[in-house]
Amino acid sequence: MTYIDAFVAPVPKSKLDEYFVIAAKMAPMWKAHGVLSVVETRPDDVPMGKVTSFPRAVQCGPGEVPVFGYMTYRDRAHRDAVMEAAMADPEIGKLMMEAPMDGKRMIFGGFTIETDA
Q1: What Pfam families does this protein map onto (predicted)?
Q2: CB–CB of 93/30 below 8 Å?
């Protein structure tokens, strides 16, 4: 069954374009390791909630916005194999370190798709 890795990360508004330039460089690298698709999204309608919200989830400060993305795989075993190979790729590691986001506040997880209508 299709598997996805999803994430939300805080990025300074002033560095969104820089973030997406790096994301565009990384997408083919991830795909070369076997990822089926890579989706990175620019925040458009992500208000600060009173109790919960995307900005609250990653503790966005003034001038920061949350970006959301996901990658797809055939299944969990495929994801695990791809991740192992990709995390050993020094170019991916270098670009991840250059991305203008606070990885300590990023949230991420793996999910099995149950409904895909």
Answers
A1: DUF1428
A2: no
pTM, two decimals, is 0.92
Q: Which domain holds residue 84?
A: 7-111
pLDDT tens-digit map of 86-111 = 999 999 999 999 999 999 999 999 99
Which residue from 64, 44, 15, 40 is spatially nearest to 55, judged by alpha carbons? 64
- What pLDDT is recorded for position 112? 96
Q: How many domains would you assign to the chain?
A: 1
Nearest residue to 27 via CA among 35, 17, 19: 35
**SS3 breakdown of the chain: % helix, strand, coil, rounded to 5?**
40, 25, 30
94 within a domain of the structure (yes/no): yes
Alpha-carbon distance values, 69 to 50, 51 (Å): 23, 23
Higher per-residue pLDDT: 116 or 3: 3
Residue 12: give its domain's CATH number: 3.30.70.100
